[in-house]
Amino acid sequence: MRWKLLRRRLSISAPRMIVRSHLPWPLRWAVVALVFGFSAALSLWAFEFGKSIAGLDKDAKAELAELRVEVAKLREEREGAQSIANTAQSLLKAEKVAQERLAQQIKQVESENLSLKADLGFFERLLPASATGLNVRALQAEALAPGQLRFQVLIMQIGKNPPEFAGRYDIVLSGTLGDKPWTISQPGGPKQLQVKQSARLEGTVNYPQEAVVKSVQVKVTDNQGGVRATQTVKL
């Protein structure tokens, strides 16, 4: 039996034997990684080489340059829009200030209109002029407080192109003080007066609180002391 086995092993029909060298697993993995790395590098080189042959790099560079120009243009437009926005904001602030000033002017005009209406009411009380020369057309007087009286006077020159009048005017209060006749003129005496067409005078006169004012008179005199016009109102 042993002889048969020995003869089978030594004969031509004996099983083939393969001799392999044994490599460690880490070395095998390193070899595999090196092969894959080399293959990837070769593929990347082939891809880049193919791109350069096809002209794709040139197109990409041209597109990148165009994009940079477009970005610069957009930045310039943005800066221009920001400048316009800042200018518009400044204009809005200026317009707001102008509107506030206009509102103040409107209030001032309304106040002046009220004053003009008061003057109109004062003038409407005047009767049509029938005389010529210098005339006292209206005289108003009212007590503001005990010992203080306010007056308004309108003096006019009637006629066509009259010469300018230069003279003085005086306000005289008459009444009683301690059951006796009493008279007082405005403080400082007669005041300067110049009239071309018309002159509106107003002011206050202080007097003793114990006095009773019964009438107010305005008297206009020329520079020589001659009386040119007078008017008296009773209170």
Topology (SSEs and partners):
Elements: H1 2-10, H2 25-54, H3 56-124, E1 133-145, E2 148-158, E3 165-176, E4 181-185, E5 191-195, E6 198-206, E7 212-222, E8 227-234
Antiparallel strand pairs: 1-2, 2-6, 3-4, 3-5, 3-7, 7-8
Alpha-beta classification? alpha+beta
Number of distinct helices: 3
Tell me the helix content: 40-55%
One letter per element, helices H and strands E, the order comes to HHHEEEEEEEE
* Amount of beta strand: 25-35%
Q: Write down the Rg.
A: 59 Å
Shape: rod-shaped
Output mean pLDDT: 77
Biggest β-sheet description: 5 strands, antiparallel
Termini gap: 173 Å
**Number of E-type strands:** 8
User: Unreliable segments (pLDDT under 50, ≥5 consecutive)?
Assistant: none
Structure, explained:
The protein has helices at 2-10, 25-54, 56-124; strands spanning 133-145, 148-158, 165-176, 181-185, 191-195, 198-206, 212-222, 227-234. The protein starts with a helix and ends with a strand. The chain has three helices and eight strands; from the N terminus they run H-H-H-E-E-E-E-E-E-E-E. It is of the alpha+beta class and 235 residues long. The strands form two sheets. Strands 3, 4, 5, 7 and 8 form a five-stranded antiparallel β-sheet that branches. A three-stranded antiparallel β-sheet has the order 1-2-6, with no helix packed on it.
